[in-house]
Amino acid sequence: MKDGGEGSLARPAPEFPPFRPLPPWFGGDLQTLRTTVREAFGRAPARLAGPSERLSFPMPDGSGDVLLGSLDRPSTATAGRPLAILIHGLTGDEDGAYMHATATALLAAGLPVLRLNLRGAGASRPLCRGTYHAGRSEDLRAVVARLPSDLARDGVVLVGYSLGANMLLKFLGERDSAVPVRAAAAISAPIDLAATSRRFLARRNALYHRWLLDRMKAEALATPDLEPAIAAAIPGLRSTLDFDEVVIAPRNGFADAADYHDRCSAVRHMGGIRCPTLVIHALDDPWIPATVYTAFPWPETPALVPLLPRSGGHLGFHDRGGAWHDRCLIRFLACRLPFG
Description:
Shape: globular
Distance between the termini: 27 Å
CATH architecture of the largest domain: 3-Layer(aba) Sandwich
Largest sheet: 8 strands, mixed
Radius of gyration: 19 Å
Order of helices and strands: HEEEHEHHEHEHHHHHEHEEEH
Strand content: 5-15%
């Protein structure tokens, strides 16, 4: 990968602020649910106020699929700052609350931001017969390679969330990018897909599981030209593991769900990462077991900077200062980019 960042690994690591949960959102479950609960009571998170530009990225695989993204530019242009590309999680899209929150923080720091819809997600859905999955790093590679020259000239910063973060880490480990990746961040990534699948099926996650499975089914059934046999099977699927077995695996060339999980888990690729990468994960994440992070040999991959607070939930990190993970991201980037 032309990451352009190996020389920056010797720079001192930033001092990250401690995570102190915002009362009364204590514990992994409340941190995970806070945004959803607040939206249910009419307290929607703030959205970007300015106009966005629509960018399209035809995929080079002959499918005819096209990915769409929203480009937001800072109010004051700053020379030398890379484009930040945000990659959403499972059943997400460019308009997720976390996408808008991070975009706001990065725009304030002077970076242009591309909020990407993965294959078959959000605004990309009617333009795609295929669908994204946790290991479809070739789509991210194609987007980076097809960036307009004015956006690519200063390199890119990549930020992924949940499933999109797993895809991002896999991409970085493959070290194949047409544009220098100057820094990256992965937030709440299910780096071991099999272990995450088992954890998600635990009884304590039954409500989460039902909610997510319903969203996965609806998203898949909205896919244009979905194979009739798969479309007929989707309503009867009883678990996310069944979904991976019946939908993801056969549609993407995997032998079965186990093969998909094994080949696409980021943990298999993280040892190859050379780009400075912040990895944020809460040890009380109710969806992803902490052991997949605590057992990883972090000292063997110095490009990775693990930030593993005891609390924060899944894509939560709501503290007294707002979005804690976004503040940590800005501090991390400030050590490696010309923010001064």
